[in-house]
Amino acid sequence: MKKKIILISDLPEDAAFLSEIISIVDADLEVAPDAKTGLEFLAENECEAIFLDITRIKQLREFEVEAQQRFGLFSDRLQPNQIHFIGNGGIGENRDAILSPLFGSFLPRSSESVEMNGQLYGRFVKAGENMNTNGVEHYISAKGDTQEVVITNSNQKQDAAEAVRQFLLMAKIPARISNGIANAVDELLMNALFDAPCDQFGKPLYSATSRSLARELKAPEHVSLKIGFDGFCVGISVSDSFGSVDRNRLLSHVSMNYRDHDYKIKFGQAGAGLGIATVFNSGGTLIYHCETHVKTIATLLYRAYPNYRDFKSQFKFFSARFYG
Q1: Which of 95, 129, 163 is the last residue of a domain?
Q2: 266 burial level (CB within 10 Å; 0-12, 13-18, 19+)
Q3: How far apart are CA 3 and CA 20, in angstroms?
Q4: Of the candidates 244, 293, 300, 302, which has an alpha carbon nearest to the alpha carbon of residue 273?
Q5: Which of 111, 129, 147 is at the close of a domain?
Q6: CB 236, CB 177: distance < 8 Å
Q7: What does each of the 324 residues of the chain score in pLDDT, given as a tens digit?
Q8: In this structure, are residues 160 and 188 in contact, taking their beta carbons and an 8 Å threshold?
Q9: Sheet holding 49-53: strands in order across?
Q10: Rounded CA separation 154/304 (Å)
């Protein structure tokens, strides 16, 4: 039986975008104009993915209420990993939606380059079918070059970020863009090295440790950095072996616009993921794949535009997928 995807939206541009996605996923598309109609379909059919227009927060709340009445809010029929919110603007402008218990992924409404953007997102949806949202190889073409390094000492972080910068410069990516991507990678490495490690009870081991203190990493603390480039798309992933990311904290930080808040990092909170919003604002897609107590993989995807203006305004999405 052919896979099904449902779009709950009455906007024709959303249907046009989904038509590109289903061409990659090889699925049939059902379009429902409202939450009630969409949930009636979901009650009778299993869907590979659920796309929901959350332009007005009222639409999301109606969906949540209808879902609660029909399935219960935490039913297996409504897995956040299968739910994709479509909205206008960025994550900061849709913070109420990002903090929903049903949140899985957010993509901004795309009115330009619909075919290209829809196919990129289609590859992401397809990768998620078998929990394969966890690596750069699923997003760059087969002709792309992929390299991987394993960090075994915390003082290798800066060298690894610099190696990424040099890799990008050699790929003829402008210096301003390369510098921004390297800074984002540095932040993800910081999280993997100092925030992720925890004991058997989930207590962080290095949350109050100075980030400048070099330490040898025991085998479970090794961090993997993978980078790939196919001439069009840059993919970078950072992985740890703890799977300790706190979902609520991650969503809170990534959706907060710190420019609008008088916020200072307190001692002991440096590893709370406060740089995640900066990472996402670096210009590209950010995908979190967390298998609880097993591993976390953070993946960055960028299109290699020749100028910073186009790079900064590129189509990008955010996803937080939690398993186990």
Answers
A1: 129
A2: exposed
A3: 15
A4: 244
A5: 129
A6: no
A7: 789 999 999 999 999 999 999 999 999 999 999 999 999 999 999 999 999 999 999 999 999 999 999 988 677 888 999 999 999 998 989 999 999 999 999 999 987 899 999 999 999 999 988 787 777 888 888 788 889 999 999 999 999 999 999 999 999 999 999 999 999 999 999 999 999 999 988 899 998 888 888 999 999 999 999 999 999 999 999 999 999 999 999 999 898 864 454 444 343 343 335 578 878 888 899 999 999 999 999 999 999 999 999 999 999 999 999 998
A8: no
A9: 27-32, 3-8, 49-53, 83-87, 105-108, 318-323, 285-291, 295-303, 233-240, 223-229, 145-151
A10: 29
Domain total of the chain: 2
**36 shares its domain with 110:** yes
Helix, strand, or coil (residue 190): helix
Whether residues 252 and 156 share a domain: the answer is yes
Asked if residue 301 lies in contact with residue 279, where contact means CB atoms within 8 angstroms, the answer is no
Return phi, psi of residue 46, to 5°: -90, 130
173 & 318 share domain: yes
Please give the Cα distance from 277 to 239 (Å, whole number): 18
Structural domain of 73: 3-129
Shared domain check, 175 and 58: no
Report the distance separating Cα 9 and Cα 51, nearest Å.
8
The amino acid sitting at 306 is P
CA 309 to the chain's CA centroid: 22
- Does residue 171 share a domain with residue 301? yes
Q: With b meaning 16 or more CB within 10 Å and e meaning fewer, what string describes 308-320?
A: eeebbebbbbbbb
Same domain, 179 and 67: no
pTM: 0.93
Torsion of CA 161, 120, 316, 55, to 10 degrees: -160
End-to-end, the C-alpha distance of the chain in Å comes to 27
> What is the length of the chain?
324
Residue type, 267: F
Whether residue 124 is found in the same domain as residue 148: no
Distance set, CA 139 to CA 110, 128, 256, 307 (Å): 19, 12, 27, 22
Residues 211 and 235 both lie in one domain? yes
